[in-house]
Design a protein that fits this description.
Layout lengths: L1 E3 L4 E2 H9 L5 H8 L9 H12 L6 H11 L1
Antiparallel strand pairs: 1-2
Bound molecules: FE2/S2 (inorganic) cluster.
Length: about 70
């Protein structure tokens, strides 16, 4: 599936770059060119990296709930 239409970059290319050592969206942009044109793909590409790494995006609303429940 294409993630970056401007540069014809697929999800598989992004995941392969991540496996090869790219750890951030900045590194993916530098390596593949994802997001270097209109930038509309950056959120989707970043979500893909995060999902593949098994972590979640920071959610301030969730953080405040955790702070209240911990006390
Ligand atoms: S869709 Fe990726 S830079 Fe435009």
């Amino acid at each position: 599936m294409y993630i970056c239409i401007c540069n014809a970059i697929t999800d598989k290319q992004i995941l392969a770059a991540q496996q090869d050592g790219c750890q951030s969206i900045d590194e993916i942009t530098h390596t593949l060119g994802v997001g270097n044109c209109c930038g509309n793909c950056l959120d989707k590409a970043e979500d893909l990296l995060i999902e593949n790494a098994g972590v979640q995006k920071f959610n301030p609303a969730m953080a405040s709930q955790l702070a209240f429940s911990a006390g």
